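User: I'll paste a sequence; please echo it back and then give the predicted structure.

Assistant: Echoing your sequence first, then the prediction.
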Amino acid sequence: MKYSSRLRYIIFIVTTIILIFTDQYLLEMRLEDQKLDAELINLSGRQRMYSQKIANQLLFVALETDKNVYNTSSLKALTDEWKSEHRKLYLNNLELHQSKLLDSLFLISSNQLENMSEASLLFQQNQSDSILQFSIKTIAKLKTPFLLNMEAIVAEYQRLAEQKLLKTKNVLFWFSWFSIIVLIAEFSIIIIPFLNKLQIKNVELEKANIQLESFADITSHNLRAPVSNLNSLLHIYNSSNSTQDRETIFLKIETVIHNLTNTLGNLLEFLKIKNNNDVKIESIKLNEVLDHTKELLTDPIFKSSAVIKADFSTASVVKFNRQYLDSIFFNIIGNSIKYKANDRIPQILIKSEPMKKKTKITFKDNGLGIDLKRHGSKLFGLNKTFHRHPEANGIGLYMTKIKVESLGGTIYAESEVDKGSTFTIII
């Protein structure tokens, strides 16, 4: 169980890390795509600028009176750069093959660029007026269609970029929802049970603290008082010279020692239950437990003429510790006989019934009953008694509750004064 919980926590952490890194990866991929799209759009825009610069330089030469002063090296560098960058765009489009429209636009623009660059190259090789006029006419004729073509290419790149951006947004949107669903599911499966376990542990800790307070009460009151009484009686015994007084004191010493022995026995039983982490759980037949209890209580049952009836027809077997269950039956049935009403024969009805994965067992009697409004909060407390009875010590119900709850069960009571009580255990 410990390793299973640890594995679930590791899965939760690893899944969370994977979701975070995947989301980061998608964002980085989108940023790379945006960067590439921006470069392509920028290159396409510069193509228009190059064509205009080349046309302007040729017009400048045509207006210059001295043609020999013009250096064609700047025109050559501009033309080469124009062709180089257009080739990058063209090869990128061939590699990605993003749309048929781009394919056709690049096919047209490449032919236009080739014709304009040839006209520019022709003037670079022969700077005569006739060649200059030919180059200007050729470029002027192709420049406007080329500009329109490049504008269409830029628009198509922008459309494709917006389309990819929309797809990325959709992917991130659905991935975000998927991440939220996964985290909620993991939170429900792993974290909430963990928090529930913490809450259960806190409740158990609170119960343990209450039981420790009871334990402190045992050591401070139930042990100190008898020991103090014993020391006082021994001092009186040693100081007395009367044989009769010594015999009387000795009888009182025996009573104190008997009570002290019972207290130590209860204390040891309490410690045994609290420290026993390897309690044996087995399938137990309720009829067998009841028969064993009747044997132990033979004398009280005979003297009180108690009638004990049982109905285990719907749940005849429980999974519990046999020693604990014997003790629970003995204490509850024993109390029903001990605190019987004086004017009627004790009637005790025991019934079991299935309750989800547990078994509910009720013990109903017609005894003296208990005023729960007055004593309900301390019913299962240590050394709490509610009737004047020579054998009442306030230990039985306390130890019964500890045994029931130590194995994950619950116990509660319903009672009405002079009508009887019903004790219910769910184990």
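The longest strand covers residues 347-355. The CA atoms of residues 12 and 187 lie 8 Å apart.
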